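Re: duplicated header lines in exported structure tokens

Our pipeline writes sequence and tokens for each protein into one text file. With two proteins the header for the second block appears twice in some exports. Here is an export where it did not happen, for reference. First protein block:
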Amino acid sequence: MVMRPRYPIDISRAQFEQIRALLESVRKKTTLRKVDLYEMFCAVLYRLPVAGTAVGRRDVVMTEVSTHVPS
């Protein structure tokens, strides 16, 4: 697997584990996953067109997602 550079927008694996169940609950389970879900989520964060700095985008997304994660 080719390692990509880390960007300021990336969340930690520990942070990602908090939302993994939510993301996997909406997935259609028809085939094996070919892409690491963590890497895909970080790519989505990177491409978000939210005003502000990269860290600001991450904070907005993580705050929004955390409101939907069951405790």
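Second protein block, exported in the same file:
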Amino acid sequence: MYNYILSLKRKYEDLNLLIREELSRPMPNSVVLFKLKLKRLKLKEKIHKMA
């Protein structure tokens, strides 16, 4: 189970990177940002439920 939580945390960090990349664009796509942030939130909730 510990490895699973670690993999979720890695996915969370990957989403953070994608969000930062999108924000660094001259005109960030708000729909893409919304979807990425929603995925990140759901993942964070899942991590906290399991930890």
